[in-house]
Design brief:
The chain is mainly beta. The chain is built from one helix and 28 strands. The chain has one helix at 131-134, and strands spanning 4-10, 13-20, 23-30, 35-42, 49-56, 60-66, 93-99, 108-113, 116-120, 128-129, 150-157, 160-169, 172-176, 184-185, 206-211, 219-223, 227-230, 238-239, 248-254, 262-269, 272-275, 282-285, 293-295, 313-315, 323-326, 332-335, 343-346, 352-359. The chain starts with a strand and ends with a strand.
Length: 361
Amino acid sequence: MTDVLLTVGTRKGLFTGRRRGGRWEFDGPHFNAQAVYSIAIDKRRSVPRLLVGGDSAHWGPSVFHSDDLGANWTEPQKAAVKFPKDTGASLERVWQLHPAGPAAPDVVYAGTEPAALFRSEDGGVTFELVRPLWEHPTRSQWMPGGGGEAVHTVVTNPRDADAVTVAVSTAGVFRSLDGGASWAPSNSGVSAVFLPDPNPEFGQCVHKIAQDAGDMDRLYLQNHWGVYRSDDAGAKWTDIGAGLPSDFGFAVAAHPHRADVAYVFPINADADRVPAGRRCRVYRTSDAGGSWEALSAGLPDGDHYGTVLRDAMCTDDSDPAGVYFGNRNGEVYASADDGDSWQLLASHLPDVLCVRAAAIG
């Protein structure tokens, strides 16, 4: 069985797990008492680099990196992510850290609150503001969601370094096809049920986007009400929520190798943020949203109240794939067989905010 590194960001630090020969071992917390909202495992270099967005109540937010799988961590002497003075803004939180594809081997993107995108060209050590998105003419009309106004998702195309897609809470999806020099809203077909016009050009409350393994232009989107698929890199979206117990939720993840396979964790409602039907269930599609199946083997059978947040579900790059999720009950579950069966890896952790995993040779 492939060795795997699992990283779990919580309200009170980072926990790391290693699977060796089928057995899991955990340590932590790293960054004790800091909220960890974002993690990246960058495998584009000979030794994977871990990137963590920590948020200290005393010292504020920062980005740390490790080149020895978390044994030691480095924080830059100057703030890695900082708004230029002329913006009049200050960093509240780093919501997303995303290594770009092999076409841009040292590029890492950071999505932040206030809603902005930053770009690093040195592997995540220093970042610069992507001004065309910050200065987009629609910005004055962006409104914060329940978690704030943030760029919380970044998707890049491994074949095209200039194609970048972001999700903004609550402005929706924006795409750039020229490396960030210009941006356009990309929300056609995505509903905003809470607005007077439910089909605006922008203003949707997108919760998460995942990219299909077989077709880089196929994307899956979990919305504030609604699960969608795009087959043209986000130009148009189609509702694929039929067959789910609820189409409200936060997380969506795609299988790392199998085309048309994706996972969601349905939530009862925006006003009742517990698992749909109070059952801890992951739902998987194997036909790009044409149908859904509940995955429950090894998960709790009774009433369950552990909400899974937008970045708290992921897959690794093993084959068969590992699938992981953590919840606000402080539980972490894992599947080593594409989601067919599950085991509890950790419990009584602080509130789980994000999880990332990767096969480690």
